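Sample entry was shown:

___
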Amino acid sequence: MHARKLRYGIVLVLASVAAACSATDNELDKESGSSGASGFGGGLSTGSNLGSGDGSTGAEMQCGKSTFGNEVPGALLLLLDKSGSMSDPASGNNGPSKWDATVSAVKKMVDAASPTLQVGLLPFPAGKFNSLLMQQCLIPIPGLPQPPNCPQILADGGCKDVDPQPVVPVVPLVEKAPAIVSWLNQNDPTGGTPTLHALKNAYAVMKAHPTPGQRFVLLVTDGVPNTAQPSVFPLPALQTDCGKLADIENEAAIAASGSPAVHTFVIGSPGSEDAAKSLSTIALNGKTPKSPGCSPAAGDCHYQIGSADFEAELAKVLAAIAGSVGDCVFAIPEGQDVDPNLVNVTVETGNGPQEVLKDASHADGWDYTDASQKKIQLFGPACEVYKTSKGGSITIILGCESKVK
C-alpha cells in the first residue's frame, strides 16, 4: 500500500466587514490585480489576493483572523454480496468466478486507496440460516418431528441472515487492510441475497460510527434481492421478513436523509441486470447517482459491470469510488459564524491561489457535502489540482457572496 502525504492547512479567512469582500468579479480582480482568466473547464480561475493591490491600508482590507483545519477522510462500509451465485464464472463458462474476480478487485482497491480512508467489510449472507429446517417446515420428513417455530422460520427464510457488525470494523486502511484481504482469502460464497437486512444493518453500523467525515455504504451485488413471496396453495407466504423491492429502495432514502446521513453507492455485477431498475433506484435514493441526468427506468444510476472484463472494470470503479470518498473533503471548523451563501474557495498551488467556483453538478468545482453545510468537497479537475499541488491546501473565504458556475 502506498502512503499518501497528509495535507494540512485549510485556511479560513473570516470577513469582519462584508462590504470589504464584495461579491463581484470585477472588485475581486481589481483587488488582486488579476485578469480573472479561468481554466480547468471553468472551475478554477486566478484567485483574489485580499488586502493588497488597491493602495488601501491593511486595517481597511483585512478580512479577519485565520484558522487551520485538516482534510476530512470519509468512512466506507463495503457491503459485499457473497450469495451462491457469486461462484458462477464472471465471463461465460470460462475464467475465474465472480467471487474470485471481486476479491482480486477489492484487494487492489484497499492497496491503492488513501491509508487514512476508513473502510470496513460486511459480507452477506452470514451463512447461519438453517435451510433444512425450512424444508422440514414445508414438507415434513416422515419420522422427524416438525420444528416448533415453523411460522418464524418460514417468515425469515434467510432474510435476516446478516451479521449485526462488520467482520472487519470501519477503521483507517493503514490499520486493517490486511484483515480485509485475509477474510476475503479465507471465505467462499454461499446462500441467498437478503439485501433488505444487509442494508439495515449496514446503515445502523455507519450511523453509530464516530467520524467527522461523510458516511457511505458500498453495495456490491450480483443478483435480484430476496423478497417476500405471497401464499400460493398449498404453500404459505414465505420470506415475508425480506420485504418488497420498494422497502429495500426506501431504506436507502431514509439513511441518506437521516442525521447523520449515510449515502449508498451501488455496483451491479454480472447477473444483476434484471435488478437494474431497483439497484439504480437505491443509488439515486442513496444520493450517489452515477450521473446527474440518470434514470432508474434506464438503469443507469448505479455502476453496472459487464462480463467482458469484469475484474478490471470492477477494480476501476472501486478505485473511483474510494477516491471520491477519501479525497477533497474539508470541514469548516466549529465555532465560525458562517453564512453558507457567503463562502468562496481557492486552491493554493505553486503558482499562487486559483479560485474554485461552486458547482451543483459536481463536475468541476466545490459544493457542500450535505444539508448541514458544515463540510465542503472539491470535484473533478478542482480536486485533482488540489491533490497534485505541492503542499496542497485550500483557502475558504467567508463573508463574500458565493461565486457559482
